[in-house]
Design brief:
Layout lengths: L6 H18 L3 H7 L4 H9 L18 H12 L3 H8 L5 H7 L2 H12 L5 E4 L15 E5 L2 E12 L6 E7 L11 E7 L5 E5 L11 E12 L3 E2 L5 H6 L2 H29 L1 E2 L2 E2 L4 H29 L5 H26 L9 H9 L9 H15 L2
Parallel strand pairs: 1-4
Antiparallel strand pairs: 2-3, 3-7, 4-5, 5-8, 6-7, 9-10
Length: 383
C-alpha cells in the first residue's frame, strides 16, 4: 500500500502553505472580528487556481483530484477556517453541473467560477429542513418556458455574495415515494424576487458568508434545470461521499493548526524556570493531538483516494467525517488548555480555531447522522 504523495502533490501543498502564510495569516483576525467576506483574498486564491480547484481544465479549472483538493483544504484550514471556507466554497453546487449539466450550462456556470468572476452556492437546507433533506418544501412550478420558484433556504454559504445557487426544489409534489419529485435548478441572485438576509453572530467561520435566502415568485429559464427533472434527490446524495470527505479534511487541517500553535507556545512559554513543553502533562497533550491528527489524516486520505477511484465509500466517508471532526474539536480544546488564559482571548489563533472547529460536527451531516450511516452500512453490508 502506497502512502506517499507525488512530487506534484507535495508542490501543491507547499504553494498553498506559502499562500496561507502570506495572505491569510495577516488578515485572519480582522475578517473574523468584522464578520466580512474576504473578497480580496478570494481573488488572489482564484489566480492560483484554488477556487473551483476540481473544475475540469476545459472549463477553466485546475482539474484537481479529490485527494489534491483535500490537501488544499487541510493546509488552508490549518491557518484560518473562515477564510479557507470562503475560498473552497466559491464553487459549492458546481459538482452537480459537472456531473449532470449540459454543455451550455457548463460553459455558462463553471467557467466564471473557475476564473474567479462569479461565486456559486448550493441551496438545500431550509428553516425546518436540515438533516432530513427529503422534507425540502421550496417549490418550483413550470410556467411556459420558465420555472417559478417560491420558498426559503437557511444556513446557505455564500448567501449574500453568491451570483447563482444550485437549488433543491420540489417540482412534483404528487410523486410517489419519499425521495421522488425533487429537481435541481440554478437560480441567479439578480433575479426579481430573490433576496438574501445575512446571518451574523456565528460562533465560528465568521469570515464565511452565511444567509437565509427568500424566493418570492423568482422566474428562471427552463434551461436552468440541472439533470433529470424529479430525480435530483438521488443525484444530490451521490456527492455526499466527496463533500463529507472534504469536511474531514477541514477537521484534519484545524487539528494540524492547533498542534502547530500549541507546539510553538509550549516551547516559548516558561513556568517554574523552564518551558512548559518540558512538563510531562503538556508533552502527553501534544502527543495525543499529534497521534489523533495523523489517524484522522490517514482515514481522510483513504476516503479521498477511494472517491477518485469511483468506489462506493459511503461508510468510509462518514467515518472520516465523524472522526476528523471529533479530533478537530478535541485538538483545539487541548490547544487552548495548553495556552491557559492566553488561549481564552483572540491574541492567539487557538481561540479562533476552537470556535471554528465545532461546525465540522454540524454541517454536511451532523455527527449523529454520520453514526447512523455507519451503523446502517455495517448492518446492511457488514464490516
Amino acid at each position: 500500500m502506497e502512502f506517499g504523495l507525488t512530487e506534484e502533490q507535495e508542490q501543491i501543498r507547499e504553494e498553498v502553505k506559502r499562500f496561507a502564510e502570506n495572505e491569510i495569516v495577516p488578515a485572519a483576525e480582522e475578517y473574523d472580528v468584522d464578520e466580512k467576506f474576504p473578497h480580496d483574498i478570494v481573488d488572489k486564491a482564484a489566480e492560483m487556481g484554488l477556487v473551483g480547484s476540481s473544475i475540469p481544465m476545459e472549463y477553466g479549472g485546475a482539474g484537481y483530484s479529490t485527494l489534491e483538493t483535500v490537501l488544499i483544504a487541510e493546509e488552508l484550514f490549518s491557518y484560518d477556517p473562515g477564510i479557507a471556507l470562503s475560498i473552497m466554497a466559491c464553487s459549492f453546487g458546481t459538482e452537480a453541473i459537472q456531473e449532470f449539466g449540459t454543455e451550455d450550462q457548463k460553459e455558462r456556470f463553471l467557467e466564471p467560477v473557475a476564473m474567479g468572476e462569479k461565486i456559486s452556492g448550493a441551496a438545500i437546507s431550509e428553516p425546518d429542513t436540515g438533516s432530513d433533506v427529503s422534507s425540502v418544501s421550496t417549490r418550483a412550478e413550470k410556467d411556459g418556458d420558465e420555472w417559478v420558484v417560491n420558498g426559503n433556504k437557511m444556513w446557505i454559504t455564500n448567501g449574500t455574495v453568491g451570483d447563482f445557487f444550485v437549488m433543491l426544489c420540489k417540482t412534483n409534489p404528487d410523486a410517489e415515494g419519499r425521495y421522488n419529485g425533487f429537481s435541481q435548478i440554478v437560480v441567479e441572485s439578480d433575479r426579481d424576487g430573490f433576496s438574501a438576509d445575512k446571518i451574523t453572530g456565528k460562533m465560528g467561520i465568521r469570515a464565511s458568508d452565511t444567509a437565509e435566502l427568500i424566493l418570492d415568485d423568482v422566474r428562471v429559464p427552463e434551461e436552468n434545470l440541472i439533470g433529470t427533472r424529479d430525480a435530483a434527490f438521488m443525484q444530490q446524495m451521490q456527492f455526499f461521499d466527496a463533500t463529507r470527505t472534504g469536511v474531514a479534511a477541514q477537521g484534519v487541517g484545524i487539528a494540524k493548526g492547533a498542534l502547530r500553535e500549541a507546539l510553538e507556545y509550549a516551547q516559548d512559554r516558561e513556568q517554574f524556570g523552564q518551558p512548559i513543553s518540558e512538563f510531562q502533562a503538556i508533552q502527553h497533550k501534544l502527543a495525543d493531538i499529534a497521534t489523533e491528527t495523523e489517524a484522522a489524516r490517514n482515514l481522510t486520505y483513504k476516503a479521498a483516494w477511494n472517491v477518485d477511484q469511483g468506489n462506493d465509500i459511503t461508510k468510509l466517508a462518514s467515518m472520516a467525517k465523524e472522526y476528523a471532526s471529533r479530533v478537530a474539536v478535541d485538538a483545539t480544546n487541548e490547544a487552548v488548555q495548553i495556552h491557559g488564559g492566553a488561549g481564552y482571548v483572540n491574541d492567539f489563533p487557538v481561540e479562533r480555531l476552537y470556535r471554528d472547529s465545532k461546525i465540522t460536527q454540524i454541517y454536511e451531516g451532523t455527527t449523529e447522522i454520520q453514526k447512523n450511516i455507519i451503523a446502517r452500512e455495517l448492518l446492511g453490508k457488514g464490516f
